[in-house]
Specification:
The complex is a heterodimer of chains A (387) and B (293).
Chain A (H helix, E strand, L loop, with lengths): L1 H28 L3 E8 L6 H21 L3 E8 L4 H13 L4 E5 L2 H14 L3 E3 L14 E3 L4 H14 L5 E7 L3 H17 L2 E8 L8 H9 L4 E4 L3 H14 L4 E4 L21 E4 L8 H14 L5 H20 L7 H12 L4 E3 L2 E6 L5 E2 L3 E6 L2 E4 L6
Parallel strand pairs in A: 1-2, 1-3, 4-5, 6-7, 6-8, 8-9, 9-10
Antiparallel strand pairs in A: 10-14, 11-12, 12-13, 14-15
Helix pairs in contact in A: 2-10, 3-4, 5-6, 10-11
Chain B lengths: L1 H30 L6 H18 L4 H24 L7 H23 L4 E2 L8 E4 L4 E4 H23 L1 H11 L1 H6 L4 H26 L2 E2 L5 H14 L4 H22 L4 H15 L14
Antiparallel strand pairs in B: 1-4, 2-3
Classes of the chains: A alpha/beta (387), B mainly alpha (293).
């Protein structure tokens, strides 16, 4: 309890510090900052993603503001991973006179807010909402993460190229856009490449604690690789129940698996050998990543995941685009909207989550995912990059 | 063997539902109110045990006792501040309050302990008992859960049948007004009921998380609802009914997943529930009470 109390106190102090910093900036810059707003789950089951994105974006904003050039003001509103709340959060940001949007962190709320972004002509760059429906038919909504089809297809390609498994089982969450989207594109690509999928089972919210049936089915079908297109929370249960059953296939995850090692009390041995495709690796040794990870750890006391890195990249991508366009903070959201569309479809951006990123007119990003494997409780790069 | 393995998985899952359902049904049977916050008291219990065992490296038994103590106090406080002022209010008001308490506990846990998932380390070890030369296995958690259920059932039955407080509880359950006229302190009797119910919730929480180790502030809510279903299935208010209902619900759920469809398993479970309630409206072991008009 003492620990918690101290944490609360630290939190309160950081908050006071932030508030006072904000007021200093407000005094110093007046209206000289671009107002960037985003919604994300800051509470609820998906809060780990929302908070990571908010923290990552905040670090980028603080760095850029300290340089003295372009100034940003960042505001995150809680959407609790709920589409309806996300629209309310979005409206609150609009009242605050947001000029540029970070969309929403997760896919379901992002589907709702991106429609608003499109109607209001407020440019959005979502760090991590990866469903294709988020950007579909909206010329001013862009993604920093790769989209679900991109990820599922890339995973199948990677498994096939590296000859990781001959019989594949897929367990997916059938009431979630994210999981369903990846699974669909994975299956299409797997068929095209002639990968044999021997078992396919599902689960859903409220039915996500016991996986013995799914695992027994995969085991009985002789699957030597299990593809897990899902977030890490159910994945951690699957891994521990498979271990209890004595079933040891190769495991292949997606970017939602990122975070499994930061679960308090999680036995890293359980995730030994789990492979995944992810654009960001906190153990990478390039200067930018090392500096970001250090700063994140210092401020928030944990290792940043991919969501934090995506949001960090979003702010820097905005900086690059705003500078290139010669935009000024007194421009309206609508003016910025058309400038940003122009910039994002023509620029090349280097960030933590990839170098040489480009965007096409649909708003989808093009960057290559990196193959990772968990070894001794850390992510290690795996082979050559998948195409 | 696959079939028997599924039966055992069903019993493992069902035993967890059963132990949660026991607390639900006991509070309902006596206070005649649905304590929807029960699932969240379970979550609090699991967190207390998690902190005791993982953060402060205390022995698991101390963790369980600490969880029981904290949950008992929590149960009494919730009852005192949320339910007692509504003793004479319509039951719908109390039901809504219980849902409010449930959200209060979930959000409070998020503030205090952050929403980041934690991995609970089982208090009874992760080993499994091998039968028939390893073809069938039962985890120690399942065995512990079933034994705990049986012990709790016997203890509750003895308590309500043989002690003064137990008799007062049954009297309150029958008719609060008459019980008061007979000199029974209805308020304190109901408080004790909640205290016991919450202590049971703590045990259920520890066992739930020992079996399915991911711990988040919403851990208790879905198993809580499933256990409530199990309690209704077995006949709400009936202690053996809760046990039977829990086990059956677990087995049906696993069978539906294994032999019908993993996508439709919940639909199948609830379809079975509807059929049972159509045939036996009071649940499997519930007493049919005819209303005096």
């Amino acid at each position: 309890m003492k620990h918690t109390a101290r944490k609360m106190l630290t939190f309160a102090m950081v908050l006071t510090l932030l508030v006072s910093l904000c007021s200093v900036f407000a005094l110093a810059d007046g209206d000289g900052a671009f107002k960037v707003g985003g919604t994300g789950p800051l509470t609820g089951g998906a809060a780990i993603y929302g908070n990571a994105a908010m923290n990552g974006a905040q670090i980028a904003v603080d760095e850029i503001n300290a340089e003295g050039g372009i100034q940003f003001e960042l505001k995150y509103e809680d959407d609790a991973h709920d589409a309806e709340k996300a629209v309310n959060a979005y409206n609150a940001l609009k009242d605050w006179e947001m000029q540029l949007s970070l969309g929403s962190v997760t896919s379901a709320p992002a589907n709702a807010t991106s429609a608003e972004n499109f109607n209001d002509h407020i440019f959005a760059l979502t760090p991590s909402a990866s469903a294709p429906t988020v950007i579909d038919g909206k010329d001013n909504v862009f993604q920093m993460c790769f989209s679900d089809p991109n990820q599922g297809g890339a995973s199948a390609q990677y498994i096939s190229d590296m000859k990781l498994g001959s019989k594949i089982a897929v367990i997916w969450k059938n009431d979630e856009d994210y999981s369903t989207g990846i699974r669909n594109s994975f299956m299409d690509k797997a068929e095209e490449l002639g990968l044999e999928v021997v078992s396919e089972t599902t689960f859903a919210a409220g039915n996500d604690t016991d996986f013995t049936v799914q695992l027994t089915s995969a085991q009985a079908a002789g699957a030597d690789l299990v593809f897990l297109p899902m977030y890490y929370q159910p994945a951690s249960l699957i891994l521990s129940q498979a271990a209890a059953m004595g079933y040891e296939p190769k495991w292949f995850g997606v970017d939602g698996m990122d975070g499994i090692l930061t679960m308090e009390g999680f036995d890293p041995a359980m995730a030994e050998g789990v492979m995944l495709l992810t654009p960001f690796n906190a153990d990478a040794e390039d200067d930018a990543t090392v500096a970001f990870v250090e700063k994140y750890q210092e401020l928030y006391d944990e290792i940043p995941n991919q969501f934090a890195a995506d949001a960090y990249d979003c702010i820097y991508a905005y900086k690059q685009a705003l500078e290139a366009a010669g935009a000024t903070p007194d421009m309206s959201a609508e003016e910025l909207n058309s400038l940003m569309i122009e910039q994002f479809t023509s620029m090349t951006f280097d960030g933590l989550t990839g170098s040489g990123m480009t965007w096409d007119e649909t708003g989808a990003v093009s960057k290559s995912p990196k193959g990772m494997v968990i070894q001794d409780g850390a992510y290690v790069g795996l082979g050559t990059d998948a195409e | 063997m696959t079939f028997l393995n599924y039966v055992l998985s069903g019993i493992s899952l069902g035993s967890i539902y059963a132990i949660i359902a026991l607390g639900y049904t006991m509070v309902y049977g006596i206070a005649k109110m649905l304590n929807f916050a029960h699932g969240d008291v379970i979550m609090v219990g699991a967190y207390i045990c998690f902190f005791a065992v993982t953060r402060y490296s205390l022995p698991p038994l101390v963790g369980v006792l600490a969880a029981m103590a904290v949950c008992t106090v929590l149960g009494i406080l919730v009852e005192r501040f949320a339910y007692k002022p509504l003793r004479t209010a319509p039951s719908l008001a109390v039901l809504i309050t219980a849902i409010g308490v449930s959200y209060f506990l979930q959000n409070g846990a998020q503030l205090l302990w952050t929403p980041n998932p934690k991995v609970f380390s089982s208090v009874v070890g992760t080993g499994r008992l091998a039968l028939f030369g390893g073809q069938l296995t039962v985890s120690y958690v399942t065995i512990t859960t079933i034994v705990s259920c049986i012990v709790i059932m016997i203890a509750l039955t003895w308590f309500t049948g043989n002690t003064k407080m137990g008799k007062a509880m049954r009297a309150c359950s029958e008719d609060k007004g008459a019980a008061q006229l007979m000199g029974i302190n209805v308020n304190s009797t109901i408080s004790v009921t909640f205290a016991i119910g919450s202590a049971l919730a703590a045990i259920a929480g520890v066992l739930l998380c020992s079996a399915y180790p991911t711990l988040v502030p919403t851990t208790g809510s879905m198993p809580g609802i499933k256990a409530f279903t199990a309690a209704v299935f077995g006949g709400i208010g009936s202690i053996p009914g809760a046990f039977l209902g829990g086990l059956l619900l677990g087995v049906i759920e696993i069978f539906a997943k294994a032999y019908i469809s993993t996508q439709l398993s919940d639909a199948v479970v609830f379809a079975v529930l509807i059929v049972v309630l159509l045939v036996k409206p009071a649940g499997l072991l519930g007493k049919q009470v005819s209303e005096k008009v």
